[in-house]
User: What shape does this take?
Amino acid sequence: MDAKPKSNRLKRIEAKRKLELKAERRGLIDPKVAAAAKVVRAEHALKESKSVRTDPERLLQSILDGVEVRVPLNSDLHVIVKLFERVDPDKPVAYPLRPDLTAFRRLVLVCLEETDLLQGRGAPQFARALLALSAHAGRWVRQPEGWEPRSHNAYRQFHSLVRHLTARYDVPTFMNTAWLEGLTPKGVVHQRWFLHVAQGQNIRTVDGLPVPLTKKQAHLYLQAPDDFDVLSAFRWAQILDLGGDERLVRSLLATRIGTEFGHDEFWVTVFRWLVAQPMLDAVHHGPLIDYLNDRRFVASVPNPDAASPGQPLLVPPQPNLTMKGRDPEELLRSVARWHRLLNRQKAGKVTFWEPSGIPPFRQEEGLVENRKVYTITELL
Assistant: This one.
């Protein structure tokens, strides 16, 4: 059987390629011809790059194959390409958990075809969330190709996609924020909390919680409002368990201890005191928290025992401060005095100098009953 004759288009391509090869051979001798051949190759590469950019599947596969692809900054795919480039299969990654690029490619293709997630201002955040989802691909319970969105709202589409991939049981909306943190160290921890709940496990039993939860608090945690995040929901659970309300929770979330959980045993006593003061205006919450933090935890006054080995030079003014028996009006007066002192300090010139080198002095005299201690501390 005779071979099918070549089309005119195929003949032209072959002829052009022969000319290019001939020009390359001549270029070994003639610099002008070499420069012209270089221009031809550049134009060919640019044309090929433009062709790839119009085909997302081909573009992503080219990146996986190690082909360098340039995408304009204003392209919806620019952020995707940059995320792919940051993950070199042959090198350690900057993320605490290695993404699965094949799974990421599948997610991107589904989202480009079915959603608006990778368009507009929210695209970078959703793209990082998809990369985080790919890193947990081993815990997917369904495949992305079987998912269809039922909303035109990007956030609702993301909400639906995450649950399709990972959830056997209902997960509250606020926990979506775990994925929107991307592959940060804290984000990976919070994503494991999400997956723990999505598999039907109790939030109390997951590793890495900032504070322990009672059974009641674990139940309240999952009822936090949609606009909370995985950390602020802990304050919601704690304060509602103490008898507080949403107004108090939202007010405290705006303070320095909103989602910081250091010294939490003390701060829980503050929450309990605030719950018992329902008439206290929320405008006082922030200054009150700042005052209590300064008095109990900020080292700002000379330590009488500084001369003893291992003792710091400065200590907090009231390291044993408690909320027991605190009168609201007197406490607010203390806060006001503290603020006036701070304002005077800010208004004045701050002066300090280096230590002289003279060691501090400490002298003890007398027995236990009549014991006296004399100390001299250099002021700086």
User: Anything to note?
Assistant: The longest strand covers residues 361-365. The two ends are 102 Å apart (CA to CA). The chain has 15 helices and four strands. The CA atoms of residues 266 and 322 lie 8 Å apart.
